[in-house]
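Human: I wish I could look at a protein chain and see how it folds. This is the protein in question:
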Amino acid sequence: MVEKRWELALFLTAVLTLGVSCASGPKPGRVAAVPTPPQPTPLPDPVPALIAEAEAALRSGLAAADEGHLDRARAEFDRSIDLYLSYPGGALAEARVAEAYRRALDTVQMRELEMIAAGDGFKETASERASIDDVGNLPVGATPPSPETRAQAQAAVAAEDLDLPIELNEPVLSCIDLYQTRLRDWFEGALSRGQKYLPHIREVFKQEGIPQDLAYVALVESAFKPTAYSRAKARGVWQFVSGTGRRYGLKQDWWVDERSDPEKATRAAARYLKALYEIFGDWNLALAAYNAGEMKILRGLQRTKAKDFWELRETRALRRETKNYVPLIHAAVVLGKSPARYGFTIEPDDIPEFEHVAIEGAYDLRAIAECAGAPVEDIRALNPELRRLATPADRTFALRVPAGASQRVSDCIVNLPPEKRVNFRTAVVRRGQTLASIARANGVRTRDVAEANGLSTTGRLKPGTELIIPVPARPPLLTARHEKGGDAPENRRVRYRVKPGDTLVSIAAQYGTTVRDLQTWNGLRTTRIAVGGLLTIYTSAN
């Protein structure tokens, strides 16, 4: 049995050896393999590069819009959209392009609606919080001043030429400590900002015959911010309330508020302070009256029989804000006259050079900024008394523009198209009319009319009241003469009924116009249009 197993094993070994020999030998008649031809190199995908370029143009347009350069913004928006439309087969031919195109179109449309809404010139410019609102919360006198603070203040007062009698009592020394600690950054920033105003303030105060060191009243009131606005509805560097501002010649209307004009308001502040001194014969009482009102101080003196401000301060006749106000001014004079002694680093703001241009009528400040070749923020900063992004419609306004730009602006605004001007009309309220009915009759939003006239949207209107009606900027349309069949117009009006499959893009391409114009002409806020709806289109006459 064992023998047979060995014979079988030897037989299998021989077979396997023969198989291996045959496999390794030549194989006559076998066909050689044909080599695979090289595959063509795939073409680069053009879509990512197209989208990247279009999105870069869109970002550039958004940045230009933020800076107020409307022409440049629109040019970049158009370039972005045109890149998508230039894709072979159109923007909707490829899914990735179509999606990016729709995103870009939505972004452009939203920004342009914002530009139209803000660019009509009727939105009031923003204000900043007035520092005077925080005076009453300061812990003046909460902790006794150190001997070092007293000695340093005495040395500063002795070294400086002061024209306002300075008290170095406990409240004033406490304020000096506050300026060096809790309020250090604020004080340093305010004093740096004030460097461009202080020379003019001192000159005006000298001319009016009052102490020049009263210039630091503006530091406590507003930190030298022309756009500061307080809870008491006081405005500007000198924080005039409306009535006092008018009493001293500061014009306030829907277009301008001269309380925010540092030059005019400084003259008014000097005259008001001088008048208060003539009433009280004491600068500390005059300063307290500047904060609280002269009648408040007169009644307090009469009731308490106090002989000066410091006695009056110890009574309950004054609010905490007024009690803190005068010591803060004394401390500001001490530190403001010798900031280096106290380790303050003062970095003065640049003093911009400017020229005046006589602007007649309402013009968008952003259009003027384009004419001047300057950011709109520079124009606004030079003219803080303007309440809107526009010059006044009812007068000639001396607009400040950067030095060297006056002639350029004068030449440019003559040729500005109508849509770059601020458009408005007036309406006189008739009996029974509401704000909503007047807005509807004029084709504008109730909210816009309310904002333009400082009214509540639900408030009642007095018959005979004249309202300003803001009119959104639009491209030039047909004149009444053209509508009545006069001479052949340069443009003709088409009434187009929307068909199934129509889009604003396809309609704009058909009539050689833009999506933006279609939206403007028809008051559209999105790209959606209803089948069967009518669109107004202005196109070149044939």
